[in-house]
């Protein structure tokens, strides 16, 4: 692998991550407060492989990352097998479940499918370092933060596209081959 010479050293991770300015906002889950129906609607309205989980929409503090596949399987299982879980049930990703109102449907606890240590880089990390991290750790995606607040996501494909754009070559021949 000798792509470094070809790589645009002036790029920063913030230039390659998503969302771009014109893109819809990053699709995130909050660690509490969303219902099963809301989570399903979010997952089904996108094709992303995973979703960052934040403390709250307002804080955007990163809690973890959950894979689309795991979310869909867990919700489907719970709807079939877990007594009382319905669209209005609250999805709980926190360590300790919030109090359950007497007249509310039971919570759906999904902490078990949450990756609590997703890889992150800061927005100002030079892209050649981010590429090195992807290569060495074999990452598929990495979250991008600024002072601990979640800003975006960068996938292996985003990097390949960016490098292909710069090198104007077939992406598959440049990286991870
Ligand atoms: P891939 O890049 O391998 O196709 P995804 O399907 O997860 O992986 O992502 C497709 C595109 O959407 C990528 O450009 C990625 O940066 C972006 N993306 C991934 N997850 C999210 C998300 N939760 N919210 C917004 N954009 C995302």
Can you lay out the helices and strands and say which pair or pack?
Layout lengths: L12 H4 L12 E2 L3 E2 H9 L5 E5 L7 E6 H14 L8 E3 L15 E2 L10 E3 L4 H11 L3 E6 L2 E7 H12 L10
Parallel strand pairs: 1-3, 5-6, 7-8
Antiparallel strand pairs: 2-5, 3-4, 8-9
The protein binds adenosine-5'-diphosphate.
The site of adenosine-5'-diphosphate (ADP) has 13 residues, from strand 9 and helix 5.
The proportion of residues in beta strands is: 15-25%
Q: In terms of per-residue confidence, which ranges show pLDDT below 50 for 5 or more consecutive residues?
A: none
Biggest sheet character: 3 strands, mixed
Query: What series of H and E elements makes up the topology?
Result: HEEHEEHEEEHEEH
What CATH first level of the largest domain would be assigned?
A: Alpha Beta
Q: Please tally the β strands and state the result.
A: 9
Helix content: 25-40%
The CATH topology of the largest domain is given as CBS-domain
What is the CA-based Rg, rounded? 18 Å
Note the main attributes of this structure:
CBS-domain; alpha/beta; CBS domain Like; 3-stranded mixed β-sheet; elongated; 177 residues; 2 domains; binds adenosine-5'-diphosphate
How would you sum up this structure, described in words?
This protein has two domains: 1-17 and 123-177, CBS domain Like (Alpha-Beta Complex); 24-117, CBS-domain (Roll), CATH 3.10.580. The protein contains five helices and nine strands; from the N terminus they run H-E-E-H-E-E-H-E-E-E-H-E-E-H. The protein has helices at residues 13-16, 36-44, 68-81, 127-137, 156-167, and strands spanning 29-30, 34-35, 50-54, 62-67, 90-92, 108-109, 120-122, 141-146, 149-155. The chain has a three-stranded mixed β-sheet. The relative contact order is 0.21. Adenosine-5'-diphosphate (ADP) binds at residues 18-19, 26-27, 47-49, 51, 153-155, 157-158.
